[in-house]
Amino acid sequence: MLTATYTLVALSVEQASMRMGLLALQKQMQSTLTLQRSLSLSQLEYACENLNRLYDACHWRKIEQYLIPALRQATEKADQLLDELSLLNQNALTAIRQMQAQMENAGEDSEERVAEVCAAIDTFCESLLQRLDKEERELFAIARRAICGDAWFAIANQMLAHEAEAEEARRERAARPLSLARPAAIIALGVPGLDGVAGPETESPTPELGPHHRQLPVRRYAGD
Predict the structure, then answer these.
(1) In angstroms, rounded to a whole number, what is the distance separating the alpha carbons of residues 16 and 4?
(2) Which of 5, 97, 127, 139 could cross-link 135 (Cys pair, CB 3.0–4.6 Å)?
(3) How far apart are CA 53 and CA 189, in angstroms?
(4) Rounded to an integer, what is the distance from CA 175 to the centroid of its chain?
(5) Handedness of CA 83, 85, 91, 95 (dihedral sign)
(6) Rounded Cα–Cα distance for residues 12 and 32 (Å)
(7) Nearest C-alpha neighbor of 148 from the set 5, 1, 11, 7
(8) Which tens digits make up the pLDDT trace of 88-146?
C-alpha cells in the first residue's frame, strides 16, 4: 500500500496547486471587479481566458488522466460519485459559456452586468473547488480500497513519465532565446504551482483582472 499512499500524496499536491489558482482568481474578482460599475472588453477577454485555462488545467490533472480511468476499470462503486464530479465540471463549463455570452454583448454595460460576470466567475470557482473537495474526501477513499497493487504501480509509472516529459518541456522553454518567448499576457494561467499540468506550454503567473490585460480570443467549448 506504500505505492498507493505515495501516489495519493502526489495527487494531493496537484490538488493543492489547483485550489490555489481558483482561490487566487476569486480573490482578484472580489478585490477588482466587484468594485466596478462597468467592464471593458479587455477585462472580459482576460477573465474568460483565465477561466478557460483553469478549466483546461483541471482536465489535464493526473487524477483525471490516470486515477479515474483506473478506478473505472476496478469498480462500479465510484460511478455515482464520478457522475457528481462530472456535473460540477458541467456547472463550471456553463459559467464559461455565460462569460462568453457577456463578451458578445460587450456594448450593453451596466452594474447589473458586472454582477452577472462576478456571479459566473464565482460559480466557476466554487464548482471546481467542490469537485476538488469531493475527490479528496470521497474519491481517494474509494480508490484506496478498490484499486489493486499492480494498478497502483502502473499509475505511479504513468505519473513519473508525465513528470519527466514536463521537466523536459521546462528545460526546452528555459533554453529558448528571449526573443522567442511568448508575452506574459498570453501565457497567464492564474494557477500558482501548476507548471506542466495543462500541457508542456503551461506557465503560472498570478492572475490579474485589471483593465489593461487584453487576452487571446476565448475558445468555444462544444461540450464537457
Answers:
(1) 18
(2) 139
(3) 6
(4) 27
(5) negative
(6) 30
(7) 1
(8) 999 999 999 998 888 777 666 667 788 888 899 999 999 999 999 999 999 999 999 99
Backbone angles phi, psi at 126, to 5 degrees: -65, -35
Q: What is the pLDDT of residues 5-27, one digit of tens each?
A: 889 999 999 999 999 999 999 99
Tell me the whole-structure pTM to 2 decimals.
Answer: 0.75
Give the span between the Cα atoms of 98 and 149, in whole angstroms.
44
Burial class (CB in 10 A: 0-12, 13-18, 19+), 36: middle
* Residue 118 identity (one-letter amino acid): C
Which pLDDT score, from 0 to 100, does residue 110 have?
Answer: 66
Reference 140, options 200, 212, 90, 85; nearest CA is 85
Read off the amino acid at residue 211: P
